[in-house]
Design goal:
Elements: E1 2-6, H1 16-22, E2 26-29, H2 42-52, E3 61-66, H3 72-76, H4 81-97, E4 102-105, E5 117-121, E6 127-131, H5 133-144, H6 155-167, H7 170-181, H8 193-203, H9 208-229, E7 232-235, H10 254-263, E8 269-274, H11 275-279, H12 286-292, E9 297-302, E10 304-307, E11 313-316, H13 325-341, E12 349-352, H14 372-393
Parallel strand pairs: 1-2, 1-12, 2-3, 3-4, 4-7, 7-8, 8-9, 9-12
Antiparallel strand pairs: 5-6, 6-11, 10-11
Helix pairs in contact: 1-14, 4-9, 5-6, 12-13, 13-14
Length: 398
């Protein structure tokens, strides 16, 4: 499997040299400075490639785009959709012309991955990302003040939410808003609470069926260009895989994935398997999902979670959580070998998704969830599992 590393571009405190020292050879990046809905020009794509490949001794290449953002108007089915579809199609053509063939994307409304705590303490002084349901409920019920929000939470969660809100100073409430918005990685708007309240009130009226229809319409319009360009789209599951502050989510489980892949069948429409996103729902059997959709997996995020009974969860060590990571890796290696035996492009890119802040990671001020040492540890652990399984089965990893 191809070992890759997410890099947010020239301003990222986690550098390309860090990626290579961790053992990665593929870079996962995006042109975050280009506004949503605009075309990624060929010259900008090639400029980013040249930057990644500048030091030939490191042997790095741009392997996966994460992500070409889907404009909110496409998700909502409004506005000048023809222009937005045209721009997305042209971006795919430009990426294909530059030899970048895999594009991860998501269809989450407003918020990307969402956590309430970006620095949950670990034994020894490390820090992890965490979702606390009582904090989410406090945010939803008392800060957003969304109508009917109380119906979405258990009574004990609501009680703790009320206690938290009453006891928490305004500065900590502002930090909670910032934490919830932190999953948005690029150059787009961060809302204050009044603005977010207005947007959520508007978009929470969108039903699951309508959001699904808008995703299908998007795929119908852009997949022909992906096929023409030789680019594969790989949808990322919702994170967490549940409706959030009244906003529908439609990539939560195996049934959702099957619907999306069957709705517009194409060899260029696939899945980003994210074990951490799917693993945050106790009902999801992640190895079973990996096995069922193995032939449609085009990109892999490997991370783990430890869940609490009330729906809270924390990002755990990569090999020590509720997801059976060894089983997932075994399935992926089997699929890679199947493709190789069938004469198909075989190498599956994966990256250690997120990581704990360890040792001096906190001094670097990297993007939340993307420390250097924590990801290096995760990649090393995953590499060890893969090497052991490949050796046992007689597979080639690369």
């Amino acid at each position: 499997m191809e070992q890759t590393w997410r890099w947010f571009g020239p301003s990222d405190a986690a550098t390309l040299a860090h990626a290579r020292q961790a053992g990665a050879t593929g870079i996962v990046t995006a042109l975050h400075d280009i506004p949503y809905g605009e075309v990624w020009p060929i010259h900008a794509i090639r400029q980013r490639q040249a930057l990644i490949e500048a030091d030939q001794a490191m042997g790095l290449k741009w392997s996966v785009v994460e992500s070409v953002p889907v404009h909110e108007d496409i998700k909502l089915g409004r506005g000048d959709l023809d222009r937005l579809y045209d721009n997305f199609r042209q971006t795919l053509r430009n990426l294909g012309a530059c030899g970048v063939r895999t594009v991860c994307y998501n269809f989450m409304l407003i918020l990307d991955w969402t956590r309430t705590d970006l620095a949950a303490p670990l034994p020894g002084g490390g820090r992890a990302l965490r979702m606390n349901m009582h904090e989410l409920a406090a945010f939803d019920c008392y800060m957003l003040q969304r109508n009917g929000s109380e119906r979405d939470y258990a009574s004990d969660v609501l009680q703790r939410a009320s206690e938290w809100f009453e006891a928490t100073p305004d500065a900590s409430k502002e930090r909670l808003l910032a934490n919830i918005m932190a999953g948005l990685p690029g150059a787009f708007k961060r809302y204050d609470i009044a603005e977010l309240r207005e947007v959520v009130a508007e978009q929470s009226s969108l039903s699951h069926d309508r959001l699904r229809e808008n995703l299908v319409r998007f795929l119908e319009h852009v997949l022909p260009a992906a096929e023409e360009a030789g680019v594969t789209l790989a949808i990322h599951p919702d994170d967490p895989p549940r409706d959030l502050v009244g906003l529908c989510r439609i990539v939560k489980n195996a049934d959702d994935i099957a619907f999306i892949l069957d709705a517009v069948p194409s060899a260029h429409s696939g899945l980003t398997l994210c074990t951490g996103s799917l693993g945050a729902n106790p009902a999801n059997d992640v190895p079973a999902i990996a096995r069922r959709f193995a032939h449609k997996i085009n990109f892999v995020h490997l991370r783990n979670v430890s869940k609490d009974p009330d729906g809270s969860f924390m990002e755990s060590e990569h090999l020590n959580g509720d997801v059976d990571m060894v089983s997932v890796v075994s399935i992926l290696l089997d699929e890679q070998q199947r493709r190789r035996d069938a004469g198909q492009p075989a190498l599956l890119p994966f990256r250690p998704d997120h990581g704990h802040e360890l040792i001096d990671d906190a001094t670097r001020h990297t993007h939340p969830g993307y420390p250097v040492i924590g990801r290096l540890r995760g990649l090393a652990e995953l590499r060890g599992v893969m090497t052991a399984i490949a050796h046992q089965r007689g597979y080639r990893l690369q």
